[in-house]
Amino acid sequence: MEKSNENVEAFGWAARDTSGVLSPFNFSRRVTGEKDVQFKVMYCGICHSDLHQIKNEWSNSIYPMVPGHEVVGVVTEVGSKVERFKTGDKVGVGCLVGSCRKCENCDNDLENYCPDQIMTYNGVYTDGTPTYGGYSDIMVTNEHYVVHWPENLRMEAAPLLCAGITTYSPLRHYGLDKPGMHIGVVGLGGLGHMAVKFAKAFGTKVTVISTSASKRDEAMDRLGADSFLVSRDPDQMQGAAGSLDGIIDTVSAIHPLLPLINLLKTHGKLVMVGAPEKPLELPVFPLLLGGKLVAGSAIGGMKETQEMVDFAGKHNITPDIEVVSMDYVNTALERLLKSDVKYRFVLDIGNTLKKN
């Protein structure tokens, strides 16, 4: 492909204001730089954070906004100094497209904790231009923030790049990935169902903890959890007290932590990956009396993200998805708001994104 110095024409769907309604949008990407990978987007997951961002619920939205940070596609062009990718490769881009590359976090493959990280959309790139995400036909991304997509992994499994890494990383980092351990997963949505799948693949015993008894069959029969607790049932919760090595808490609503802390063994770890909008109450006595830990975790660095998709490919771990066409996106977002999806929508960008 011939290189020109003009920007690359791109097309996607964007939110224009806090209504969050998406509509067709013509824009430009930067020309492929020497360390950049340009790729045709094939699939993009719809993440719950897309909903918050398009409606400015986190008070930092830049419009027009092209969402999407679970992006899988095929390389169409590489810069002259790109070493890891070639035209035709299947690739993925997750939540990050930039970081400072010189702080302690970046040096330790923790770009996800870099204070100067650049988000895949609703961010500002180093050249001062806004970042636009994967609800679009092409992406141009520095190769450092691109992962190889395993050949045997369906490209529709794009939500691995956010929901997957968000649950894989804390299981690994906090040592909750050892066969024979007993792990709890709170909430059975986009994040929760991935936590169950990874924890099972690590060889642990898994208990799903939910407010909704109706999710028992889903958890046990479909996802392979070993047991199920209704968090609102004091007898069930009491019966399981002190039984878990660790808990991955995926819930983003306000909820009590004490019942969860009571489920942990001595030195057990409660790791938060959901983001409630208001502070939660943290009872300290049960932490002191059991040497217990409450921690947090956000996505993962690039090295770990590659490790995660490779692991998913090897163990055939894929999210449960509903694939929809691009022009269905606003309906999908409305349904997502009502939790009317099992468990992730994925946009079929490559086949259904048409220029208007």
UniProtKB/TrEMBL annotation:
GO molecular function, one term: cinnamyl-alcohol dehydrogenase activity
Matches recorded under Gene3D superfamilies: Medium-chain alcohol dehydrogenases, catalytic domain, NAD(P)-binding Rossmann-like Domain
SUPFAM superfamilies: GroES-like, NAD(P)-binding Rossmann-fold domains
Entries under InterPro entries matching the protein: ADH-like_C, ADH-like_N, ADH_Zn_CS, CAD-like, ER, GroES-like_sf, NAD(P)-bd_dom_sf
CDD domains, A to Z: CAD1
A GO biological process held by the record: lignin biosynthetic process
Family of this protein: Belongs to the zinc-containing alcohol dehydrogenase family.
Listed name of the protein: Enoyl reductase (ER) domain-containing protein
Record organism: Solanum lycopersicum (Tomato)
Lineage: Eukaryota, Viridiplantae, Streptophyta, Embryophyta, Tracheophyta
Gene responsible for this protein: LOC101259903
